[in-house]
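In this supplementary section we document a worked example of the pipeline. Step one takes a protein sequence of length 533 as its only input; no multiple sequence alignment statistics are reported here. Step two produces a three-dimensional model, which step three serialises into structure tokens for compact storage. The input and output of this example are shown verbatim.
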Amino acid sequence: MQGTVSDSPVLIVGAGPTGLVLGIELARRGVPFHLIDRLEEPLGWDRAIFIKSRSLEVLAGLGLADAFLQRGRRVHGIDLYSEAAKVADFRFAGLDTPFPYILSIPENETEGILNARLEQLGGGVERGVEFIGLEQSDSGVRVRLRSHGAGERELDASWVVGTDGFHSPVREAVDDAFDGRDYRRLWGVMDAGISGWRHPREITCVQLQPPIVIPFPLGDDLWRIYFRADSDNPDVVFALGERLAVVSPGARLQSPDAPRFFHAHSRVARRYRTGRVLIAGDAAHVSNPIEGHGMNVGIQDAHNLGWKLALAVSGKAAPALVDSYEAERRPIAQAIVDSGDAAEARTLDSASDARQELIAFLSTAEGREFAALAESELGFGYDQSPIVTEFGAEPAPSGRGTKIGHRVGDVAGLVGQHGTLRLHELIAVPDHTLLWMLGEAATAKVEQALSHLKAATERRPGLRAHVVVRTAPASGLFPNGLLCDPDGGLHDRLAADGASMCLIRPDGHLGFRCQPPSFDTLDTYLHRVFADR
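The serialised model returned by step three reads:
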């Protein structure tokens, strides 16, 4: 089914951050799509504000790092309180990423930045259009849509992706189960100023002792305050001020807006794919907001799915490639949902022992490192994916190099034909990046490798290939495709002790490593990703 080129567009239903990132991923690869949303206008306010380190890496790869960093506020760590006593803390400074912090930015501003990027690429959102239903065949999907004021129409799509939220009509149209549960207790959220706050704004103070209160900075003067509530009584504002004053004596709320209340959920869809219909973001999973993962996991769903769907639409995907989306992303959603359930259990009045165990763990170096990595979402990988493979060499020892299936961290100081660059700049392309690591290699061997790589990329469109050496050419001139790794950071990053081949996927994850290099082995692997030509 994936081996056939389709002239029909992909239909994306839902223009939140997940749908917008998916649209950007398709647009940058020239894949036709329609992105619809039932709302006439974007929401002017939404409760999500956290962008984690891994999502910032994704957004940087789309050329959006500066736009987000200029608009958001960086949070460098978390302090945990039990009533007035600080009992634990952790910081993000030691994380292996160009973005060792959480970025605080309202979701409506996130959507505005993504929308502008989509329009730069020639795309856009068709608003006021509601998904009604679908019928699918082996070759496509016929979708019924209703436009506000214009009645119903049909659209033929090559694929349909539901990024349409918790109550996803797309998920319901394919009768997909949404397993899990709903939390009984309410969450509340409110924007306000806080006078007399004694703590640095770049450190978030979490009140662990129930009822939970978590103030997050928004810009220079405003805070978004999350809290647990037993009811939706607006009088909770007074109690909320008292709870903040426990953490910071003398703190007072200034000009609070009306609190908004919502129920949280813990659910994962049973299937991410039904024929030519896929789901992502909140349509596929919802988790406890106490850990702030929801929007981020959706952005990363879209980042994972976009390049695979683009290959499928163009007829270049191996039969199992789109299936790997569920195989890779669903276990991560399940892990996050399970973590949220555990966090929820610790918020109960009766869970004092569990809270003390958490505090004891976070008082250790191991616990602080674990917490920072979990918050950043940098540690998630696709170890068990059907499309990641290591050949020849033993897996990299724990703590050294990149594990197969995991995202590749950044490396500075690489030198190429156009000057110095970072690894994340090199791989921020719509294609796979093949690196032939040669270490200290003779000139003749380098020239031979460059010749082989040129032939390989001509044979296999969709690959960008580079020979990587430790020592720059004596002439100081770099032929096309040659990179110098003078500090050895890239060789260490990829655990390339000897000559090896490493293939980095378009989503920045290490998909293939082979030591010693072998084009036959590479071709065997590529058959898992690309259709036979």
